[in-house]
Design goal:
three-stranded antiparallel sheet; 90 residues
Length: 90
């Protein structure tokens, strides 16, 4: 429905304008549908989940992301993530 956005103003296909925040991004995270805040980086997504980036392997759309790429990679609508979290112990 959305064709353009400008500072919280959303214009639909028919030119009707409404105020409000952008819609949430829809992603799949470890096989489950999830709505997340638009504009997040992958690092911010991990933080919001309470995960330490150094202890997680992130697969985005079937590609492993290097840890150095997490902060600069945006979470986009339709992304599919698999997260593998390492747990220490002994």
């Amino acid at each position: 429905m959305t064709t353009s956005r400008d500072a919280g103003r959303v214009t639909g296909r028919r030119g009707v304008t409404r105020d409000g925040p952008p819609a949430a991004a829809s992603i799949v995270l470890n096989g489950e549908d999830r709505a997340v805040e638009p504009g997040l980086s992958v690092a911010e997504l991990l933080h919001s989940l309470g995960l330490e980036p150094g202890m997680v392997v992130v697969e985005r759309n079937r590609e492993i992301l290097a840890r150095r790429e997490l902060a600069g990679t945006p979470v986009e609508d339709g992304d599919r993530f698999e997260l593998v979290h390492f747990v220490g112990g002994g």
